[in-house]
Design a protein that fits this description.
Low-confidence stretches: 1-7
Structural class: alpha/beta
Radius of gyration: 23 Å
Binding site for substrate: 287, 324, 328, 356, 384
Mean pLDDT: 95
Bound molecules: ligand LLP
Active site: 355
Catalytic activity: meso-2,6-diaminopimelate + H(+) = L-lysine + CO2
CATH superfamily of the largest domain: Alanine racemase
Subunit structure: Homodimer.
GO molecular function: diaminopimelate decarboxylase activity; pyridoxal phosphate binding
Length: 425
């Protein structure tokens, strides 16, 4: 991941840039993203999935990290985009993202959001519950458009990940329960402004095994078989969701094919067995594309030694820019950017600066001797950090700097106190 390796450079180098210099130039906390890394991941998707298998498509799950510049990068890589809100959709529109390549998700899309999607000719709407069909039909009729949809199926599978980021288990707010599918299908066929293309499932996030995908494909194949048998419906598209896990601390990294080969093989196998035409297979990874492309830089301030207990090292950010440790107990790895060659022989706890005891970024981190003013680099913060950040305690959000071939540029400006009071009356 860009460790300099050499002894002559003592600062941590990320994507060709000196992180201590970046901290000086832009201030901290600072989100830093590597465009090179993002493009590398998109390249892998094209090489190992889209070009490897016929009838495949990949969309980027933009909830992981979205700005106008990110939308432009995804567009230039030729991937589609998954959005889950009017705000994500609006960002895509404003970045001139091709709307036919946008998939609109959500378990409770509002009428306004659906109207924005329909007016702008969004490529697919993924329907989460039966009454949503009526709402889409009503709006589509008003605009005289026939909307392409997929039905999100809840396959009822418990996968191994944090329970807050499981989505495909039976007891879930997401998707159509297996027991209701045929009733929903019949309703779908009765509507004039709705064109059903197929099915979607999403099992959860930060998944590190591929077996649950295989099981889900079998369940979907069964639905495809029955839909054909009962109604003569030919499934044209099967969207297998995202969720591919990445290494944060000790986990082993998985390449794309670890997930996608078994998915494709299982779809092919089942289609042959049931005599079905193989549908277009869609994947929608978010974290896998951007997670490792991001780091966050902080400056160390307060160092509090509690005798015989522990040392709290406070940084100038915390749970506002990275809520994942406090929300999910997520673990992160970090180093001191300005002491990269010094031995890490102290154990400290990295605390944030906000008014919550739960505002801890890293428990029991091994670092060299820490001093106020040192720069801490937390790794793997590209996904679900900036996108889940908040203004608690009325703190402005950090800037986002994008690195490309050794050059840095701001893609999101640092918020100011003026931004904080902008909408106050
Ligand atoms: N497709 C759908 C329908 C989704 O709901 C999600 C994520 C994805 C794709 C992309 O999942 P990914 O490939 O990024 O795992 N805030 C949580 C993660 C929530 C994920 C929600 N849905 C976290 O920080 O771990």
């Amino acid at each position: 991941m860009g460790y300099s390796g050499g002894v002559s450079v003592s600062n941590f180098i990320f994507s060709g840039c000196d992180t201590v210099e970046l901290a000086k130039k832009y201030g901290t906390p600072l989100y830093v993203m590597s465009e090179d890394h993002i493009r590398e991941r998109c390249g892998e998707i094209k090489r190992d999935f889209i070009n490897k298998y016929p009838k495949t498509k990949a969309v980027y799950a933009s909830k992981a990290f979205l700005t106008k510049e990110m939308a432009r990068i995804i567009k230039s890589e030729g991937l589609g985009m998954d959005v889950v809100s009017g705000g994500e959709l609006y960002t895509a529109i404003k970045a001139d993202f091709p709307m036919e390549d946008v998939i609109f998700h959500g378990n409770n899309k509002t009428k306004d959001e659906l109207t924005l999607a329909i007016k702008n000719n969004v490529g697919r709407i993924v329907v989460d519950y039966v009454e949503e069909l009526d709402l889409i039909e009503e709006i589509a009729k008003e605009y005289n458009k026939r909307m392409k949809i997929l039905l999100r199926i809840n396959p009822g599978l418990d996968i191994q990940t944090h329970k807050y980021i499981q989505t495909g288990q039976k007891d879930s707010k997401f998707g159509i329960p297996l027991d209701n599918i045929y009733e929903v299908l019949e309703k779908t066929f009765s509507l004039k402004y709705i064109d059903l293309l197929g099915f979607h499932f999403h099992l959860g996030s930060q998944i590190l095994d591929n077996e649950s995908y295989i099981m889900a494909v079998r369940i979907m194949a069964d639905i495809m078989k029955n839909a054909k048998g009962k109604y003569g419906f030919v499934t044209k598209e099967l969207n297998t969701g995202g969720g591919y896990g990445i290494p944060y601390t000790e986990e082993a990294g998985k390449d794309l094919n670890y997930f996608t080969d078994p998915i494709i093989n299982e779809v092919d196998k089942n289609c042959v067995e049931y005599n079905l035409e193989r549908p277009l297979v869609i994947i929608e990874p978010g974290r896998w594309i951007v997670g490792e492309a991001g780091i966050t830089l902080y400056t160390i301030g307060n160092i509090k030694k509690i005798p015989k207990l522990k040392t709290y090292v406070s940084v100038d950010g915390g749970m506002l820019d990275n809520p994942r440790p406090s929300l999910y107990g997520a673990k992160y790895q970090a180093v001191l950017a300005n002491k990269i060659n010094e031995p890490a022989n102290n154990t400290v706890t990295i605390a944030g600066k906000y008014c919550e005891s739960g505002d801890i970024l890293i428990w029991d981190l091994r670092l060299p001797k820490v001093e106020s003013g040192d720069i801490l680099v937390v790794f793997t913060t590209g996904a679900y950090n900036y996108s889940m950040s908040s203004n608690y305690n009325r703190i402005p959000r950090p800037a986002v700097v994008m690195l490309s071939q050794g050059k840095d540029r701001v893609i999101v400006k640092r918020e100011t106190y003026e931004d904080i009071i902008r909408n106050d009356i």
